[in-house]
Amino acid sequence: MNASVRKGTMALAAMAAVAGAVAATTPASAATEPRFLAPSELPPHPDSAWFAGPVTAGQPDPLPMCVGDALPSTSSYRAFHTDYDTAALQVTVVERSDQRAKDFAALLRRHLTDCPRELAEDPDVSATEKSYGKVSVGDGADVYGINTRTTWGATDINLFSVGRKGNVVTVVQWGQMGGFADAPVAAFKKTTVTAVNKLS
């Protein structure tokens, strides 16, 4: 599971590199485009602009840490990257009803809460989760931080938010090398508000 240790940052970076090759992706229908963030709506990077791949139908490849196993084949996603080690991902799922969306959002939150324990099944990995509370937008959103550390010295920080508006759920992930002190929590909450507001 050593490869999964860096899922937060390294998988995001790999996905962003693939997303940059637009011809290698399968764009989702134009109707899904308004549901996704624009690069300028992500937390600002001090030394780089953000760049985005197309909105793509299906599960992200590679799957993101913590929530990847819960994402259905009906997902759509957009990967983002900077010129440096910071990357981001947004995944949106349209459910058949508000209740199904509510249940799915609860499932994602459970996956995030359990993530440090699952990552720590690898003896070379330790992980810590921090809840940054709720954001008042749509039908609610929650923000989390996950810091992973390895025995060889690598450390990554990832921020996640799970938000819902009606029958649509979105997950936003931001990641880079570093720890909790490096996380732009206030800016990420602003990004979460924008992401949920764009769901309809």
Q: Explain this structure to me?
A:
The chain has one domain: 3-Layer(aba) Sandwich (Protein Transport Mog1p, Chain A). It has about 200 residues and is an alpha+beta fold. The protein has four helices and eight strands. The chain is globular. Helices cover about 25% and strands about 30% of the residues.
Give a short synopsis of this structure.
By secondary structure, the protein is an alpha+beta fold. It has helices at 2-5, 7-20, 98-119, 185-197, and strands at 51-52, 56-57, 76-81, 87-94, 125-135, 141-150, 155-165, 168-177. The longest helix has 22 residues, at 98-119.
Q: What order do the SSEs take from the amino end to the carboxyl end, as H and E?
A: HHEEEEHEEEEH
Average residue-wise pLDDT: 88
Q: For the terminal residues, how far apart are their CA atoms?
A: 38 Å
- Helix-residue proportion: 25-40%
- Indicate the CATH architecture: 3-Layer(aba) Sandwich
Number of domains: 1
Topology:
Layout: H1 2-5, H2 7-20, E1 51-52, E2 56-57, E3 76-81, E4 87-94, H3 98-119, E5 125-135, E6 141-150, E7 155-165, E8 168-177, H4 185-197
Antiparallel strand pairs: 1-3, 2-3, 3-4, 4-8, 5-6, 6-7, 7-8
Q: What tags apply to this protein structure?
A:
single chain, 200 residues, alpha+beta, Protein Transport Mog1p, Chain A, 8-stranded antiparallel sheet, 4 helices, 26% helix, 30% strand, globular, disordered N terminus
